[in-house]
Amino acid sequence: MAKLSSVNKNNRRKKLVKKYAGKWARLKAIAEDMDRPADERFAARLKMAKLPRNSHPTRVRNRCALTGRARGNYRKFGVSRLMLRELASQGLIPGVTKSSW
């Protein structure tokens, strides 16, 4: 089980990303639009820099939904490799069987 503080920190980051997603998209569109004047694009970049750092999507870490483990996660299932194996062995994931020979 991961530290609860790390899991909570990541959840706060997810909330901030959701809150500022529209603003990020608008400012990024302005900053990358080559038809706009250079000073307007630069102003948009400055506004992007003033947004909270944790509001950028790259700051969010993929974590296991069950244990909070940060590494070895399968996006398709939302769990870590350890939990995937355990759940597959128990037959709790539809369509997945653990092979043995």
The helix content is 40-55%
Whole-angstrom Rg: 20 Å
Structural class, by secondary structure, is mainly alpha
Cα shape: elongated
Which features does this protein show?
single chain; 101 residues; Helix Hairpins; 30s Ribosomal Protein S14, Chain N; 2 domains; two-stranded antiparallel ribbon; 51% helix
Description:
By secondary structure, this protein is mostly helical. The protein folds into two domains: 1-61, Helix Hairpins (Orthogonal Bundle), CATH 1.10.287; 62-101, Irregular (30s Ribosomal Protein S14, Chain N), CATH 4.10.830. 51% of the residues lie in helices and 4% in strands. The protein has three helices and two strands; from the N terminus they run H-H-E-E-H. It has a two-stranded antiparallel sheet. Helix 1 (4-32) packs antiparallel against helix 2 (38-50). It is elongated, with a radius of gyration of 20 Å. The two termini are 31 Å apart.
Quick take:
With 101 residues, this protein is mainly α. It has helices at 4-32, 38-50, 81-90, and strands spanning 73-74, 79-80. The chain folds into two domains: 1-61, Helix Hairpins (Orthogonal Bundle), CATH 1.10.287.1480; 62-101, 30s Ribosomal Protein S14, Chain N.
Topology of helices and strands:
Blueprint: H1 4-32, H2 38-50, E1 73-74, E2 79-80, H3 81-90
Helix pairs in contact: 1-2
